[in-house]
Specification:
Rossmann fold, Arc Repressor Mutant, subunit A, six-stranded mixed β-sheet, about 45% helix
Length: about 425
């Protein structure tokens, strides 16, 4: 008879309200599913980390968020195998002693966002951070990296921390955000330390009539689907390697459960890339009427607006607005509205379970037939064919060649900083 594998009781101490933590948990789940590991997972039903009493927990191992000082303190005397997860730091004292540590690469994430804004032709840069706090060490590290990057280029980088999110301070916080953005030189590229902060700033810009991305090109970090759903202008974001972090941490703990030891091992996982959407697609335009019109179109194209409504918003005649558009963009206002609606429809088709009727309504097409006609005319395929082509492309990219795998490991895989056994 086959020997029944030992069941290990593992605690996952994370806050599932954050996309970063949820993706780490997903990576741990992927590792368990792909191996013979048999783990009984302890996880709070509301996904919140409640470390009280964890030092008395009668389990076999723990994977925890060590950017949370409460969790770090609670696990200080725990003798069980523990794998720590958190941000990367230039100061070695920021890492826990005698624990293996899997880190998201803060430097590469901020550098990726900064380079993206430079490539968009911007010359002024700012960072929207979080108030200084032991819980926000990772945000202050991203500030330091931003300051180093801009300083190395001889640029003054503007940093704003704002206030913490709360119902009581919300109105005042929005007013302060607007005042800060208005004080910045324009056009400006802004990196937000999270998508949540980016969403707040994007909302403030829309409320104040500050054109995004013409005056403010904005990019967040996390690639949080919720942040994209809650904004009229789709939010660009750096995609963290958090799923890979979860897989890596689970692999380390699996080995530790069988006797391996990795004290002071630090593994840095780079970002996956950038999901580039409308909020950071800055293009140099000279005429303010075109900038105003594009700002309005990005917000309301999918609500079925017409050229006359755009002209009314800008405050000029339709014929004048058409002249400015053709001179600067080489296309009509109607073409720009349709282009934005088509991009929105393509994004919805790329999500599993999307249907043409739902997409036609959501993206401002009057009928499913009109949606089909636009796809055939502009892309040479039907919405269903586009969806099938996209799915086939994903399948091909999921099965790279051996040489591609070797290349990827050399350039984008987790990096081992220090190892002590």
């Amino acid at each position: 008879m086959a020997k029944t594998p030992t069941v290990h009781r593992i605690a996952l101490l994370f806050n599932g309200n954050k996309i970063f933590d949820r993706e780490i948990i997903s990576g741990i789940g992927e590792y368990i599913s792909s191996t013979r590991a048999s783990w009984d997972l302890y996880l709070e039903e509301d996904f919140r980390c409640r470390p009280q009493g964890i030092e008395r927990w009668a389990g076999h191992g723990i994977i925890a968020d060590f950017d949370d000082p409460v969790t770090t303190a609670a696990l200080e005397g725990v003798q069980l195998p523990v794998v720590a997860i958190g941000g990367s730091y230039a100061d070695p004292s920021q890492y826990p002693a005698n624990r293996p540590y899997v880190a998201t690469d803060n430097y590469k994430m901020v550098k990726l966002a900064y380079d993206h804004l430079i490539e968009a032709g911007l010359q002024h840069f700012a960072l929207y951070s979080l108030p200084e706090s032991p819980c926000n060490r990772w945000a202050q590290e991203r500030e330091r990296i931003f300051t180093d990057l801009t300083g190395a280029d001889g640029i003054t980088g503007h940093i704003y921390r704002g206030v913490g999110t709360s119902a009581q301070s919300w109105d005042a916080a929005v007013e302060q955000q607007i005042a800060w953005v208005r004080s910045l030189p324009k056009p400006v590229g802004i990196i937000a330390v999270t998508d949540a902060r980016a969403r707040q700033l994007l909302q403030a810009c829309l409320f104040a009539g500050i054109a995004v991305p013409e005056q403010v090109a904005l990019i967040g970090i996390d690639n949080d689907p919720l942040a994209r759903v809650l904004t009229r202008i789709p939010l660009s974001s750096v995609i963290q390697g958090s799923v890979e972090m979860g897989r890596t941490a689970a692999h380390l703990l699996h080995q530790m459960l069988h006797g391996a030891r990795f004290p002071d091992t630090r593994i840095m996982v780079p970002p996956v890339g950038i999901n580039v959407l409308a909020s950071s697609r800055h293009e140099v335009r000279n005429h303010p009427h075109v900038m105003q019109a594009m700002h309005f179109i990005r917000q309301y194209a999918c609500q079925g607006i017409k050229t006359d409504q755009v002209a009314d918003y800008v405050g000029i005649s339709r014929s004048s607005l058409e002249w400015y558009f053709r001179r600067e963009l080489g296309r009509s206002v109607h073409d720009e509205i349709l282009r934005f609606k088509l991009e929105a429809a393509k994004r919805m088709l790329e999500q599993a379970g999307s249907h043409a009727a739902e997409i036609a309504v959501s993206c401002g097409f009057t009928t499913v037939q009109y949606l089909h006609a636009v796809f055939k005319r502009e892309l040479g395929c039907t919405p269903k064919e586009y969806q099938e082509q996209f799915a086939a492309g994903l399948e091909r990219s999921a099965a790279p060649s051996a040489s591609a795998v070797r290349s990827k490991k050399k350039t984008t895989g987790p990096s081992l900083l220090t190892t002590t056994k």
